[in-house]
Structure prediction request, 304 residues.
Amino acid sequence: MNNQSVQQKVKNIYQMLFEMASGNFIFRMHRDPENNQLDEVAVMLNTTAEKMELLISKLGYINPPYKQQSSVQATIILDRTFTIENFSEEVPSILGYKPEKLLKLGFHEILAKQSLPSWEAITAEAPSDKEVHTAVQLLFITPTQHFVPSYCTFSRQLYNNTIIVSLITTILQDILPETTNIDQHLSDAVLIQNVYDYILNHLEDPLPSTKELSKIFIVNEFKLKDSFRHFFNTSIYQFYMDERLKRAQILILQTSITLKEIAFIIGFNDYTNFYKAFKKRFNYSPSDLKRNNNNNNNNSENKY
Prediction:
């Protein structure tokens, strides 16, 4: 296993830790059978997240009873032009395509626009990287315009230019009683839990409009906004902004990453906008935070 691959896997560990620190316990790490130590960490973190998710549900937090199906794993094979050449039998049902419609589609054609920059970065590196082994979260889009968030790894076959895409996704379903008298409050809670999880998993991406979110979760736009405000006493956009800034606060306090880089990591293209939003949210500027002793050497740089 090369150093770049190890670094990416360690980065994934950090990402999951931040997801858990932010209250997102639906995120799962892809196991690594090639490295026992990394595999042990992945199992430990996945187990911890599952236990926390169960505990929060039992305590009556906005995590009502639902069943989490076993993670669905599938494979897509791309040719040298990144066109779909073949796939495992699970792919059509996961992505909502008829098998014959998937063949010969460009891989970018089944991705949501939010994931195109990540995909373009992969295709840009692929020609110069003979090994091509990377992992990333992508958002697929079905023919009915519904989103399928997935964790994907890309690798090149040894003796040709074929690229193997291994994807894993989890489908959540409500536990519905066998009676037709369904508690509407429970149904709304399940909806908002899924919206909450989606936002936390995509904080670094632009927030879809409420119209786009209503299509993703197959719900009336007014009901989506009204239900979200009922549970969180704030708008979807304000919740999204608050969570991004909370993540920035954690990164400032616990890492040596420069403030400009942190602003970029959480989705701000302009540091001035990040500075203003952070100060408005916390009533102090990012540079006012006291960083740990390991970060003292970066103090001068972190004021910009």
